[in-house]
Predict the structure.
Amino acid sequence: MRNPSVCVIAHAHPDFSKGGGETAAYRQFQTLAGEGWEASFVAAIELPGGQSPSDRGEAVARYGENEYLYAVSGMEDDRLWWRSAEERRGLVRLLAGLNADVYHFHHYWRVGLDLVAELAEARPDARMVVTLHEMLAICSHHGQMIRTRSRELCRKETAQRCLTCFPDQTLERLRLRKALMISGLRSFDHFVYPSHFIAERYRAWGLSPDKATVLENYLGDDLLALPRRRRESARLAGRFAFFGQPTEFKGLDILIPAFASALAEDPALGLMVYGATEEETLRFFPHLERSITAAGDRIVFAGRYDAADVVALMSSIGWVIMPSIWWENSPVVIQEARRAGTPLMVSGIGGMAEKVLDGVDGLHFRAGSVPDLTRAMLEGAVPENHERLSSSLRDVIGREEFIGALRGIYAAEGEPVMRAA
Amino acid sequence: MYFEFGQALQAGLDCAGDISPDQGAVFGWVRHPVGEALELRVEGSPGDPVETLLLDIHPRQDVEAPEGMAVSGFSLVHDIPRHAPGRLLIIGVVGTAAVQEVAVDLLAYDLPVDVEGVTLNREWGATYQLLHASARDPGRIKTLTADAGPPGIFGGWLDRLPRFAGSADWFMDFRRVTAAMLPDGELAVSGGFNLPPAPGQKAAAMACALVRRPGGGTEVLPFAGEARAPLEGGFALSGRVDVPAGTAVEALIQIRRGEQSWWFRAEAARATLPEFLNALSLSGVELAGADQGALHGWVRQALSDRGDALRDRLATLGLAGAPARSGSTALLFDVNDEYAARVLSLLAPQFEARFGRMVLSGTAASRAAAGLMRRGRMEITVQGDAEEALLAAAEGPGQVAPIDTASLVDAAIEGNPARLTANALPADRLPMIAALHGMAGVGEMESTLRRVVALMAGVDASALPLPVQRPDAIGGLVAEHLRGLWEMVPVSGVAR
């Protein structure tokens, strides 16, 4: 039986931005193409001054073999809808003209809910699939489901609760937003979630679980080809690293004080911060200056890193720590650490708690708790503990399993395919 | 012209002329002893009676009244005797012991005959009272039809009256004056005095209405059921003018308080019921304690009378929703949000499968319609507001399903398009909603339609919001009135 032709549509191209969603989308395209499937990749791009990606001014431009870029300057400011019906139609014509059996979207932001609906009408014979990497449809607060006036985690969407986060809105408008999002998403035949956590959030929100599959993002052939070495626990157990941006919800302001406390008990510990310089960190969190000073040369800010080097970097340390104070849906960092064979310490919430099993792949600590992270660091720094958890650490989803799951998603009619990732 | 009939009886005649080939008018005054009654009539020749069509006696403050004497102004409209050559004015004064009658030959003196010209320059109270009386009996009294039709002899005088339209914060000696009219012709005119308090002096207000019909015809009509509040610090009056919708109506008002009088024209603004009730209850006008009680009593009675008057009409408004059949009209009357336009666009296939036509109104309606029109699978009509949308929907055949944003949202979130067709009405029943809005509307037509949609869907009426009311006891009366009106309306449908 021939494989279906698949058009992967993403809100960005990883040549231009390095977000998890577009990276996963592109890896999927590359993997399918590498398997000999007929695949294409269509991605949004925002060039300076709203310029067209084509030098002839067309809204869509070819970008390599079976790859296309489209401009979003014809969209509304919220990038959920097209202001220019003509530009939307042009893009629909391109997509429909690709004659794909499956249109697999990664995100609807910078894609347009109206475009999805129009394409579904234009190609009723095609299967419309979306991978929902985030919760923008559910939560107006950047999809983070974290309260705007505190850093309290939000566990349930209701218009009334949302109104307390956005008091300048009205209940009617918030309900309209939900009606818009859910109506738009119902254009899809199937939903793919990278974690059970996010799948459950969308189920509780109103999307049918009967058309859903939980499928972990595929890290790509290159990373999967890297050898997974056994950890040297005696040397690495006390060496921790953070990979990420120094943003409000990533928890760097939890990690650094916790490390300073742990260091007071075990001066041999070390912490690498990848993705942020000391200056950037202090700009976001000025109050960390005392902890950073106390940590002295035991904390190193390594700044930016190349994504291609991440597994190697992770292989050089004992623990990857993810102290996020928001849910994290399905963090690539966790996959990369598992691929590298490096156990994790994560906040025990959301996608982190799901992807890192406490006592199997690493250790959990209470989200936002400096003392509990200190406790976990000291526990993890014991070589025997590190050795035990390193040995039970699971690898990420493999190519065959990923392709097999996609084949099922693209072919299935009405059959729920909820799988453990 | 002055006539003296002795120390105890004098008269002044301002004019004696014709207002039509068969009707004449005599204006003037009589000075007579205090306590004696005045009788006036016209005779063709001595002993030949002529029918008096109208005799209005009014105060004349411009004529001196020595101690023990009274001055009575009069306007007398009479038939013109066809065969009798003469025209006598008989002035009679009825005392306790005797009757004194004198006759004035109206044709023997060079009395002014230009009734309209004299009307223009008469004391305004006399003119107003004649106008008010003429409006009550226009078939009989031809003052309003003289000189090429209404407003007859009053045309020039009416042009001189001060006027305001709708409302004004300051106007003459008043503040916060308002003239509001409901679609069914109910009118309320009110305002507060911008004058020092006048304890014990209650304002006496009168009104009639100058009506300009859409085709160009003009009439002066009485206020049916004219009622006025007994206030010292303000005035409020109400009544009904039976005119078709779209007719321009100006209330012609006289207010007297103590020695002072005011006459003006107030162009009534088309009002929602809450606005009308605000005018009726002098919302925003601060009144002294005694007036507050008087106003409360008056408003209570006015609303009670209004409820009684509307009960039967409201009870006949059977708004029974039933599932819409294929090809019906969808009426989306509150598309005010960009998101609503987007939702409509996303649900377009569901609408097209169920309806043959869609009528939209609201600030985002055009945006929504553009997308639907591009699809070209349904007849789309956009109207400026919910009222016009209702009219447009009623023009189609079959059924009309009014759908508010809340229902649209419910249908979208639940993924249940059957909600969209749950409650439809025959198109020819829609004018009842317009009538209901006029009598019991809870704001703009959008609000009334939302309430109807909710009631048809089985929402408990007591759970539905009413317009925000003033926080005092009168606000309670108004809320109770609105609630009571809706209890009189039989609305039913398919429950949500």
